[in-house]
Amino acid sequence: MIAVRPEYYDKCVEQGFTLLGMGRNQRKRVQRMAIGDRVLFYVSVRLVFGVVATVSSTYFEDPTPTWPTTEPDETFAWRVNLKPDIILDDDHVVDARLIAPRMQYVKKWAPEQWPLAFQGLLHLVPKQDFALIEDEMAKGVKRPDVALGNDSDPWCALDGLATKA
Q1: Which of 3, 12, 55, 150 has the fewest CB atoms in 10 Å of its CB?
Q2: What does the pLDDT read at residue 135?
Q3: Distance between CA atoms of 115 and 123, rounded to whole angstroms?
Q4: pLDDT higher than 60, residue 147
Q5: In this model, does residue 47 exceed pLDDT 90?
Q6: CA 130 to chain centre
Q7: Per-residue confidence at 164, pLDDT binned at 50, 70, 90?
Q8: 3-state helix, strand, coil in the chain (%, to 5)
Q9: Could you give the CA distance from residue 48 to residue 16 in angstroms, rounded to a whole number?
Q10: Cα(158)–Cα(134) distance, integer angstroms
Q11: What is the DSSP string of 90-105?
Q12: Per residue in 50-73, is it b (16+ CB within 10 Å) or e — as a string?
């Protein structure tokens, strides 16, 4: 699971979820990613799950600034290509507040403090949790090939998404 800030997620929206970049602290984890690994996007602040993708390349380094960052020297240079599997529109994203309490991954936190489980960028969640979330996402509607755009609503998980699902 990738837990990202809304700004990072919005940049992935623009790219059609075809690229994932990690910072220098995540380099070894990115190097272990293999073609066929699955990635679940969780958007902090918005508290939603909206995308499942599959890793479609081995890792590579590219220092080209692509995503917004809070650190001046961070370029998220450790990257893999992705193939999106499920992209939900803003009306169908999975509200993490409704599903997180059922996840094994958050059991070591007090129920009201489950968001603490998702701090940091990259998380290895149990397969049963991934399947639980993916099943909920599959009930939603894949994003049509149009852009909605609702930049004024911070809870809108896929503002301006345009992708071929």
Answers
A1: 150
A2: 94
A3: 13
A4: no
A5: yes
A6: 12
A7: very low
A8: 30, 25, 50
A9: 18
A10: 17
A11: TTT-EEHHHHGGG-GG
A12: bbbbebeeebeeeeeebbebeeee
